[in-house]
């Protein structure tokens, strides 16, 4: 008896879609980049771990079919959307306040004064309050479902996507925590914080005003 192939066309499409979505600039990636340049690699990796944990939580819900149940109750998604929008606006306010500050940052070190637990929770909360993550994972699971093999490929696809996500977020944390990146951050800090404020603000308002 020949085992069914794991890397089917649908599975490869699911991997590609997840990679593009994960690697594309967004609130999570921008937050990791900024944290890596301002607070160092350890802080950025901890924050990234929180983001990955949040993504994995949605992945488990989707693979168990619970996300479809959640999506059927519009009130739940509305509550998540409001919480996510407000959290993004709060992040935007913090970035804007930093951008408007004329004070130069203290010497950047490879360690952050913020507790690692808090950094992890910040990353976790950023992804858990993103209702689009539910829909993304539902799409990934749908692509992994085969008319022939059913749900046999779902968990391998989920685990593969988590490996991809971990690699992408960790790469951002490592790449932007280098000495050259920190020097660039010192030079463009206010511009970067201003860009983050705009990005978070637009994303937050989009969540709050979205009807879907």
How would you describe this structure to a colleague?
- The protein has 212 residues and is mostly helical.
- The chain has one domain (32-101, 112-209).
- The chain contains nine helices and no strands.
Chain-averaged pLDDT? 76
Distance between the termini: 46 Å
Looking at the structure, what is the overall shape?
globular
Helix count equals 9
Order of helices and strands: HHHHHHHHH
Helical percentage: over 70%
- Work out the radius of gyration: 19 Å
Instruction: Tally the structural domains.
Output: 1
Number of strands: 0
Structural class: mainly alpha
What proportion of the residues form beta strands (DSSP E)? under 5%
Please give a handful of descriptors for the protein shown.
mainly alpha, 212 residues
Summarize the structure.
This protein has helices at 9-23, 27-39, 41-63, 66-72, 74-100, 116-128, 131-144, 154-175, 179-209.
Give a topology summary.
Layout: H1 9-23, H2 27-39, H3 41-63, H4 66-72, H5 74-100, H6 116-128, H7 131-144, H8 154-175, H9 179-209
Helix pairs in contact: 1-7, 1-8, 2-3, 2-8, 2-9, 3-6, 3-7, 3-8, 5-9
């Amino acid at each position: 008896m020949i085992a069914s192939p794991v890397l089917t066309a649908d599975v490869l499409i699911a991997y590609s879609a997840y990679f593009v979505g994960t690697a594309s600039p967004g609130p999570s990636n921008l937050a990791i980049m900024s944290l890596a340049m301002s607070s160092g690699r350890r802080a950025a990796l901890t924050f990234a771990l929180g983001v990955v944990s949040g993504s994995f939580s949605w992945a488990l819900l989707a693979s168990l079919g619970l996300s479809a149940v959640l999506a059927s109750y519009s009130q739940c998604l509305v509550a998540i959307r409001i919480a996510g929008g407000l959290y993004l606006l709060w992040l935007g306010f913090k970035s804007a306040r930093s951008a408007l500050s004329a004070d130069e940052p203290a010497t950047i070190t490879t360690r952050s004064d913020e507790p690692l637990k808090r950094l992890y929770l910040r990353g976790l909360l950023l992804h858990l309050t993103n209702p689009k993550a539910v829909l993304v994972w539902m799409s990934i699971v749908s692509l992994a479902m085969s008319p022939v093999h059913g749900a046999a490929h779902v968990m391998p696809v989920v685990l593969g996507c988590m490996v991809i996500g971990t690699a992408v977020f960790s790469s951002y944390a490592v790449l932007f925590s280098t000495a050259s990146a920190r020097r660039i951050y010192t030079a463009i800090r206010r511009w970067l914080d201003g860009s983050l404020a705009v990005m978070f603000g637009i994303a937050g308002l989009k969540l709050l005003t979205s009807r879907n």
